[in-house]
Design a protein that fits this description.
Blueprint (H helix, E strand, L loop, with lengths): L2 E8 L1 H4 L4 H11 L3 E8 L3 H7 L9 H8 L4 E9 L1 H9 L12 H5 L8 E3 L3 H11 L14
Antiparallel strand pairs: 1-3, 1-4, 2-3
Length: about 150
C-alpha cells in the first residue's frame, strides 16, 4: 500500500443539509484520511463543465453541471494509505438510491445524480483534479501535533 492523495467534493445537495458537511468530513478523518487543503466555493458553469468534461457527450451532462452549480461545494485534498480507494469505499456506489446505509452516498444523497459526494477514481485523475482546484502552495503536509 502507498500513501496517496485524492480530491473530495461535498456536492451542493449535501452542503445544503444542516450538519452534513461536518459529519462527512468527520467520517473522512475517522477513517484516517488527513485533510491537507479545503475550501467551500460556488462553482461557475465553466468550472463545473471543465471538471466533468470527460462526461460531456453523456445525456446527463447538462443536468449534472446545473446540479453542481446549484449551491456551494466543499472541495478538499485528502491524504492517507490507499486514500483513493479508502475514500471511495466511504462514499459507496455512485447511485445513492442503491447505496447502503452507513455509506456517505447512502446516508446523504438521493439518487444517481444527487449523490452527495465526488471522489477521484485513480492516481492520475486525482493529480489532475487536485491541481484543478488547488495550487501546490495551498496543500499543507501534516505537521506533528504540539504537546
Ligand atoms: P464521481 O465522479 O462524482 O465521484 P462516480 O465516479 O461514481 O462519481 P461517474 O460515472 O464519474 O460516477 O459520474 C459522475 C457524476 O455524474 C456522478 O457522481 C453523478 O453525480 C452524475 N451521474 C452519473 N451517472 C448519471 C446518470 N445516469 N444520470 C444523472 N447523473 C449521473
Ligand atoms: Mg467519476
Amino acid at each position: 500500500m502507498a500513501v496517496e492523495r485524492t480530491l473530495s467534493i461535498i456536492k451542493p445537495d449535501a452542503t445544503a443539509k444542516p450538519g452534513a458537511t461536518g459529519e462527512i468530513l468527520a467520517r473522512f478523518e475517522q477513517a484516517g484520511l488527513k485533510i491537507l487543503a479545503m475550501k467551500r466555493i460556488q462553482l461557475s458553469e465553466t468550472l463545473a463543465q471543465g471538471f466533468y468534461a470527460v462526461h460531456k457527450e453523456r445525456p446527463f451532462y447538462g443536468e449534472l453541471v446545473k446540479f453542481m452549480t446549484s449551491g456551494p461545494v466543499v472541495v478538499s485534498v485528502l491524504e492517507g494509505e490507499n486514500a483513493i480507494l479508502a475514500h471511495r469505499d466511504l462514499l459507496g456506489p455512485t447511485n445513492s438510491s442503491e447505496a447502503p446505509a452507513g455509506t456517505i452516498r447512502g446516508d446523504f444523497g438521493t439518487d444517481i445524480e444527487r449523490n452527495a459526494t465526488h471522489g477521484s477514481d485513480a492516481p492520475e485523475t486525482a493529480k489532475v483534479e487536485i491541481s484543478y482546484f488547488f495550487n501546490a502552495s495551498e496543500i499543507l503536509a501534516p505537521v506533528e501535533a504540539l504537546t
